[in-house]
Write a structure and sequence with these properties.
Layout (H helix, E strand, L loop, with lengths): L20 H25 L4 H9 L11 H4 L17
Helix pairs in contact: 1-2
């Protein structure tokens, strides 16, 4: 039939661009510790204006999430069990 001999390919080790898992975990843990410590210290020093003094400098663009409720997005009736009063037309 045919020649079924498989050629052995020489394995060339490619440089990869991924970070080893343990290195990532260590870096993430250190950064998380730093962030939590700075948040707690800021809360201790600025209990009355924490957001203004601590959060806003760390998030320069402001909040990316805008507060809204489901009822703002859905025109399908009330979300509570309380009856909705209808305006009386004259």
């Amino acid at each position: 039939m045919g020649n079924n001999k498989k050629k052995n390919k020489t394995s060339v080790k490619k440089l990869s661009s991924y970070i080893p898992t343990q290195e990532f975990v260590d870096k993430f843990t250190q950064d998380l510790i730093h962030a939590v410590r700075s948040a707690l210290v800021g809360l201790e020093y600025y209990p009355d204006n924490y957001t203004e003094k601590v959060i806003k400098p760390k998030v320069p663009g402001g909040d990316l999430v805008k507060p809204s409720s489901y009822s703002d997005k859905s025109p399908h009736g009330p979300l509570s069990s309380e009856p909705v009063s209808k305006p009386v037309s004259s």
